[in-house]
Amino acid sequence: SQTIHQWPATLVQPVGSPLSLECTVEGTSNPNLYWYRQAAGRGLQLLFYSVGIGQISSEVPQNLSASRPQDRQFILSSKKLLLSDSGFYLCAWSVPRTGGGQPQHFGDGTRLSIL
Amino acid sequence: AQSVSQHNHHVILSEAASLELGCNYSYGGTVNLFWYVQYPGQHLQLLLKYFSGDPLVKGIKGFEAEFIKSKFSFNLRKPSVQWSDTAEYFCAVNANSGGGADGLTFGKGTHLIIQP
User: Fold this and answer.
1) Distance between CA atoms of B16 and B20, rounded to whole angstroms?
2) Contact between B101 and A57 using a beta-carbon 8 Å cutoff
3) Chain B residue closest in CA terms to A6
4) Chain B residues in contact with A109 (beta carbon < 8 A)
5) A99:B49 CB<8 A
6) Residue B11 CB coordination number (10 Å)
7) A42, A46, A50 member nearest B104 (Cβ)
């Protein structure tokens, strides 16, 4: 069966520090991968998605970047964190099919607090 | 771009009461619709989904939702709730396009509390 792992579960970082959140998927090949963020009082917002190695699409301009160095690895990064980067970050995967109708499967998330 | 509106942010019900959570979306094209649930301390899970066909879809744990295209709605229902249904419920939509990689647009969620 397929599983998705995110780490760390919680992270406290000072303003201006770098960030690296990692997400890996097991049990499937060539998944579509996604990063979402949930800020306080808001719904989940799509940040990035990827249909393959090295292919990243950004949905919103921001202080963050994403990379996909391997088929089942998706990394969320920042060179210098801002206070506004605080939130709950979720990684998700889906089976690539036309129509975009495949459900997405979510990891447990990373709660990021910026001090 | 799509947007999703969930009408109630907090709902409190007694056990055995009937439930209906509202969800409206805005998008000019064909959409796929989802309801996700997050139980306390657990990750987001798919409750049910609509792609095409019968607009009344049934999901896990006795939940169902009806897609009404003319109203751009996808309301979630359950005839008799249980204490274990206490959770956060999210409505989501993505475009039914050929890309296959459309991210989801979520509503802000409804926090449902069931009192025993």
Assistant:
1) 13
2) yes
3) B43
4) 43
5) no
6) 17
7) A46
Q: What is the DSSP string of chain A?
A: --EEEEE-SEEEE-TT--EEEEEEEES-SS-EEEEEEE-TTS-EEEEEEEEETTEEEESS-SS-EEEEEETTEEEEEESS--GGG-EEEEEEEE---TTS-SPPEE---EEEEE-
| CA–CA gap between residue A109 and residue B43 (Å, rounded) | 8
Q: pLDDT tens across A10-30, in order?
A: 999 999 999 999 999 999 999
Which residue in chain A has the smallest CA separation from B88? A43
CA B58 to each of CA B45, B54, B108: distance values in angstroms, whole numbers, following the listed order: 15, 10, 22
Size of interface A-B (CB pairs under 8 A): 73
**φ/ψ of residue B63, rounded to 5:** -85, 150
Residue type, B93: V
B16-73 pLDDT, tens per residue? 999 999 999 998 788 899 999 999 988 899 999 998 889 999 999 999 999 999 999 9
